Amino acid sequence: MPLSQQDQFSLLKDILTNHQTDCCGSVAECEQVERLVKSLMINMDIDQSALTILEEIYRYSQTGAGTADLDSHISEHQGQLSEWVDEIDQYS
């Protein structure tokens, strides 16, 4: 059963919140974020401001999945993670 858009935003928020609070994560989480963002971006009803944020999150997750030091990558993006989590609240 596919996840609703609200469920996808909620899951995305949960993963990003974990990255923000724990300052660590896994490649599998980054890959999950990529899949969630792709799914949300192909939704024709998505708001333009949400699309911009999703593009930023997608780049973050792509870079994170390919980096040798994921924990450092997450630490470097703490400010952005906080902003994204706050922004996602508007859409979920």
**Which percent range fits the helix content?**
over 70%
Mean pLDDT: 92
Question: What's the story with the biggest beta sheet?
Answer: none
Task: Find the count of extended strands (DSSP E, 2+ residues).
Answer: 0
What would you call the shape?
globular
State the secondary-structure class: mainly alpha
Protein name: YtzH-like family protein
Organism: Peribacillus psychrosaccharolyticus
InterPro entries: YtzH
Provide structural commentary.
It comes from Peribacillus psychrosaccharolyticus (Bacillus psychrosaccharolyticus). InterPro entries: YtzH. Pfam families: YtzH (PF14165). This is YtzH-like family protein. The radius of gyration is 12 Å and the shape is globular. By secondary structure, it is mainly α. The chain has one domain (5-88). The chain has helices at residues 5-22, 27-41, 48-66, 70-76, 78-88. Helix 1 runs antiparallel to helix 5 (78-88). It is built from five helices and no strands.
Which descriptors would you attach to this protein?
globular, 92 residues
Précis, in short:
Helix content is 76%, strand content 0%.
Layout of helices and strands:
Elements: H1 5-22, H2 27-41, H3 48-66, H4 70-76, H5 78-88
Helix pairs in contact: 1-2, 1-5, 2-3
